[in-house]
Amino acid sequence: MQTIPGYHIKTLIGEGGMAKVYLAVQKSLDRAVAIKVLDASLNQDPIIQAQFEQESTLVARLSHPNIIQIIDKGMSEQQLPYFVMPYVKSVSLETILPRTDISLTRKLNILIQLCSALAYAHRNGVVHRDIKPANILVDYDGHAYLVDFGIAGYFTANKEATDPNQERIMGTGAYMAPEQHSGTSHTNQLSDIYSLGVLMHELIFGVVPMLANEHTYAQQTNDKYQMANALRPLINRCIEADPKQRPSGADEVRQQLLLISQGRHLQGNRWGNESTRDNIPPNYTLLDVLKENPFGATYLVNDPNRQRFLVIKKQNLDHLGNAPQYAAKLTQVQHPHIVRIFGTGKNPRVFISAMEYLPGGSLQERLTQSLSLGQCLTIAQQLCNALACAHSYGIVHGNLRPSNVLFAKKNHLKLSDFGFPAHSYGDDAHWYQPANEAVSAGADVYALGAMLFQLFTGTLPSPSLWGLKNRWRLRKAPPKVRRLILRIIHTSPHKRIASAELAGSVFSQLQGEQKTQILEKMIGN
Known about the structure:
Layout: E1 7-15, E2 19-26, E3 31-38, H1 46-61, E4 72-75, E5 81-86, E6 90-92, H2 93-96, H3 104-123, E7 136-139, E8 144-146, E9 154-155, E10 169-170, H4 189-205, H5 223-230, H6 232-238, H7 250-261, H8 271-274, E11 285-293, E12 296-303, E13 308-316, H9 323-330, E14 341-346, E15 350-356, H10 363-366, H11 373-392, E16 405-409, E17 412-415, H12 441-457, H13 468-473, H14 479-488, H15 500-524
Antiparallel strand pairs: 1-2, 2-3, 3-5, 4-5, 6-7, 7-8, 9-10, 11-12, 12-13, 13-15, 14-15, 16-17
Helix pairs in contact: 3-4, 3-7, 4-6, 11-12, 11-15, 12-14, 14-15
């Protein structure tokens, strides 16, 4: 048994090829935690030690409801590295596979959650490399968690090999994509899609694809088997030997699963009770619940007439701000960096807007990764363009923050939720807004600068004396970028850069200079 200062180890709850997992109590907070400790037999392998360290670093950067976070790390008294996670009372998907009492809709719900976690990890540059049932946990409310990033199936193709340059292989036999057998350098996000396809096949049909036979897909007349067989084309695409023939990403797989499920995986949402009263077209099918809170709800629906996904946002009338007026204007605006609004409605209970669906996640999800100067300047330019357009129509965002910046593609973003008031009050109310300053175009410009400051430093700006702390935090940014951001986040509106349009023109100039420098380096080489 391990001895770890600050923790009381209770019992061993899991054991794999590289590590043991213990149930413990964190003494300072008196809470249950799970502690993963590297196996003593592997402690002398520097590469495996590095991989174990890498997993904790990778997962600590990720923040997603379907990924268990790292809350502490260190070295045990036995000199074995460990990291600590919240303890989730759950079972692995591996133990669920043999059960016959798990409905197909519950299985689809698990897969949809898994795709959400995987898409988020991929957007942040993290490849799992060992998607399999043992690495999926499901709690007693049906909430799924993806665990063991980048380490669980770590082994060499030839354990007896003495060549230190031999490339390591990560993965688990039946779930590995063909390219994974060539080593980790050949493994990418599409390798995870292959493993996901194998897992989907096993969860739905009971066996991995290589063990399937003519009885595996026996046609049945009931809805359960019709839905199961509707999954086969998607699964077959996922397990194509050629990575280029697989779905482009976990988001695409998730969208297809949602279309097949048609909302049957959901339970306890408000859509069924409200949609008729709110005059939502009856042929709009609820696919997923994106958010529900006391202020309203946001749903993903399918518009069969136009063969597209739509986001339906409902907001309580007592928490609207200027959203209705601004949405009415934005229905007439088509800007490449503003979320398209197709229509609005209102009744005595809620304000409703229908808008385009953007599958690329939010800027909030990208804050965990390091972005290049070019990427930061591209984001800045697009944000400035969107704000400048909105301000020209008299539209002030009023609640600009990373969660309201959505990605249509990897480097193509759009602003959303113009005019809706913030949902947070108290100490965090002014994270992206200047304190004691009314909602205005100038306050939007400050929020823009605060987000850019966070992209470069990982923290939000501080209203310190003369901005010395902010200047120090921006010390690694190029001087011209540093001076521009400091002007944008000046706490005095009169000393702040005048407009988003002006900030955009300067960022455009900086972007051009950076491209020129890169070209000159290429020519020089």
